[in-house]
Amino acid sequence: MKQKISLLSLSILVILMLTACSGTTSLAVKQSTDLTGQAAQVQSVAAAVPVRSAAATATLAAPVTLSSGGLSAYESALEEIYTRVNPSVVNIRVVQQQSGLSSGSQSSPSFGLPGNPGNSGQQYSQGLGSGFIWDTLGHIVTNNHVVDGASKIEVMFADGTIVPAELVGADPDSDLAVIKVDVAAEQLTPVQVADSTQVKVGQIAIAIGNPFGLENTMTVGIVSALGRSLPAGTTSSSGSSYSIPDIIQTDAPINPGNSGGVLVNGQGQLIGVTAAIESPVQASVGIGLVIPSSLVQRVVPELIKAGKYEHSYLGVTIATLTPDMATAMKLDAAQRGALIVEIASGGPAEKAGLQGSSDQITVDGQQVPVGGDVITAIDGQPVKSKEDLIAYLAEQTAVGQKVALTILRGGSEQSIDATLAARPAQQAVQQTQPSSNTGAGAWLGISAQPMVPEIAKAMGLPESQTGVLIQQVESGSPADQAGLQGGYKPITINGQRILVGGDVITAIDGQTVTSMSDLRAFLSTAQAGQQVTLDILRDGQSQKLTVTLAERASPMP
């Protein structure tokens, strides 16, 4: 069998070699997978090829015609696109002091800055990225992660000219930045920008940049998918993370160093900025992620004008509602929408009265939130996933704009208006998981945090208030069955992200609870099936709840 396959492969190769110089290549491909014939039969096909006998043709299926004229036109088109676009693409070299430039995660936007420590022992590091000329005033667009933290920026043009550049403005939330060079206008060739909202899957996609520092590199593929999202890479002061919507996916090879370069269409017009790859090996495996030109056109002019861009902000952490989550919330399993997981303290959502999730369920071994409002539409536009909401806020709204939200609360549809604010500035925030209060004996089923003055103040309580603040309630647990409520408004205290707004346990069976140790000590001696009375504070009001403890379950992750 191996011999037959080898001979068949050889015969096809002979066909290709003998017809490569003709005006039209007629290559017939056999449709059947039957390889049971003898080697002599295969050899007879190869022998018949030079004279293109009718017998040889009859053994093959209908031909697929490749026009050399069409191939030539395709090559000429690519050559023309490269000639026209390449002068607009630049190589960016950055130097950063006292901090190494990381090559980043394979799926992170920072993949485009391969670490290059330079001279060993020095306190400088350097990296390479790409960019493109925006206008004849010297403005150049690149990724924020390419120039973030740079103490020195150099730009090399396609003709080899190297000039210094300075940062004009940056927006971490869209991973875009603008730098400027002092170069004569006649030396600058701005890119032509297309409308990325008109891009379709399957259309040609051409990337030009500087992968691995190899300047003026062009790769070709197609648009593989639309509507992806990409983490912005940093966290807000409230502890929330943001996403870049409407990301274009392409299989055009993109590698470290391409960051900030261009992805153009078949007309050589910009449809996006190459920003990230999804890869287990930090090199192209055919999944490149590109910031759409529609976002670029909104952000870049503001960066040039004001040095920053203000994103509209609702102040929610959301998740796409899944069938399991919908069922747990007693909704139709087919219901879709964006589930509000958390609400930022003081944000538009809180002011509008939206509610976050306070319960959790276990799905495939993972804890997922349930119980919050489900956004099903915004300004009459359907919301079937979190990406729908993120994209609408990014593309269709502005700071100060009022939006109409259609929500499901307790299975009933409501309409709530919210006035959008400016998104808070981002900063690096250390997140820690609150301690679980499950003891060694009976199980209550909560994750909690001891009260401190900062938490009490954030909840409108006296700073001297003591107790244990419930962070999360595990679905189906004794706490859940008793109606205890977890937090849903994230705040950051001393670098720790904490959910406030939940119940505060102040006593259990008359014993004062002032710390996690008090709660653990009680539970460690309690028995499954034992009924206990909890004194709690809910919205500043004292209440008593009876809870029947159960056998200890595994702590929440």
CATH architecture of the largest domain: Beta Barrel
Q: So how many helices?
A: 12
Report the structural category: alpha+beta
The major β-sheet equals:
8 strands, mixed
Inertia-based shape: elongated
- How many DSSP E strands? 35
The low-confidence parts are 1-62, 99-121, 234-239, 427-440, 553-557
Quaternary structure? single chain
Helix content: 10-25%
The Rg value, from CA coordinates, equals: 31 Å
How many distinct folded domains? Answer: 4
Give the CATH class of the largest domain.
Mainly Beta
Mean pLDDT: 79
Give the DSSP E fraction (strand runs of 2 or more residues).
Answer: 35-45%
CATH topology (fold) name of the largest domain: Thrombin, subunit H
List keywords for this structure.
eight-stranded mixed beta sheet; six-stranded antiparallel barrel; single chain; 557 residues; 20% helix; Pdz3 Domain; elongated; Thrombin, subunit H; 12 helices; disordered C terminus; alpha+beta
Question: Can you walk me through this structure?
Answer:
- With 557 residues, this protein is an alpha+beta fold.
- It has four domains: 2-61, no CATH class; 85-306, Beta Barrel (Thrombin, subunit H), CATH 2.40.10.120; 312-427, PDZ domain (Pdz3 Domain, Roll); 442-551, Pdz3 Domain.
- Helix content is 20%, strand content 37%.
- It is built from twelve helices and 35 strands.
- Strands 18, 19, 27, 28, 31, 32, 33 and 34 form an eight-stranded mixed β-sheet that branches. A six-stranded antiparallel beta barrel has the order 3-4-5-8-7-6. A six-stranded antiparallel barrel has the order 9-10-11-14-13-12.
- Helix 1 packs parallel to helix 2.
- 42% of the residues are buried.
- Residues 1-62, 99-121, 234-239, 427-440 and 553-557 have low confidence and may be disordered.
